[in-house]
Amino acid sequence: MGLMSSGAPPPFTDRVDRTDDDGVMVLRLVNEGRANALTERMLDQVVKALEGAGGDGVRAVLLTGSGDRHFSSGAELGDEPADAWSERIKRVERGIAAVASAIAKAPCPVVAVISGDAIGGGLELAMACDWRITREGARFAMPPARLGLVYTAEGLRRFSDEIGMARTREIFLTGRAMDARQALEIGLVSHVAPAEELLPMGRRMADAVAANAPMAVEGMRVVLRAIADGDQPDGKAQQWRVRAFGSRDLAEGLAAARDRRPPVFGGD
């Protein structure tokens, strides 16, 4: 199941479109007729794109939604009986977990550019990214309690790690929606911008990452992930520091700084 590049005829209404430019990959969730609801196919496409990012020379990824109304509404409610719906939701949950794992293993950061409302699994997908920016007017909500659903432990942990336990309790146990400014206040997102400036802001962030030494970026992501997971960060940091001290990119970075010119990193 390939990703669609811009200009190619879309074979499915639920898909992920991909564009690449100067080391920046943009992945766009496309399911506009259903508020960009997540499907197994879409999640699988995101995983495959992220797994191939290193070999494709990608240095930063932007994950966004199609249109300006929705980033993603999560799993679609549908009209099937509760038991069939439950099985479908479990498959989507496994897909979100697979994307989160692929983001964690990616050699470069993945930034969520939240182009509209982020609800349920759509919000969890954004929370799995390295950081999040959103447009003015976007709404955020986690509705499982309103549906009678107990959310996954992995998903709840993802929120509590980012915004703390008290905020996570409030979001999940009340089910109330919040706007972009409230999301910024509690650390759910890092930046809020007018709609027309959102993607350019994301692109500037991605370009800033792409201009840096790939080994340094990847190494610090690995160490930061180990810190977040409580997984002996000192040993990982030392391994990556040894690699960095012996790298051509370090020599290039030092030379560029001394010559007062932009560095040209090769990734080794």
Distance between the termini: 32 Å
Given this structure, which CATH class of the largest domain is correct? Alpha Beta
Structural class by helix and strand composition: alpha/beta
Average pLDDT for all residues: 91
Helix content: 40-55%
DSSP strand count: 10
What is the third-level CATH name, the topology of the largest domain?
2-enoyl-CoA Hydratase, Chain A, domain 1
Q: What is the rounded Rg?
A: 19 Å
The CATH architecture name of the largest domain reads Alpha-Beta Complex
Estimate the global geometry from the Cα principal axes. globular
Number of helices: 11
Strand content: 15-25%
Task: Provide an overview of this structure.
Helix content is 49%, strand content 16%. By secondary structure, it is of the alpha/beta class. It has two domains: 15-210, 2-enoyl-CoA Hydratase, Chain A, domain 1 (Alpha-Beta Complex); 214-259, no CATH class. Strand 2, helix 1 (40-51) and strand 3 (60-65) form a beta-alpha-beta unit. It is globular and about 65 Å long.
Give a brief description:
The protein is α/β, with parallel strands linked by helices and 268 residues long. It has 11 helices and 10 strands. Helix 5 (153-163) crosses helix 6 and helix 9 (214-229) packs antiparallel against helix 10 (233-245).
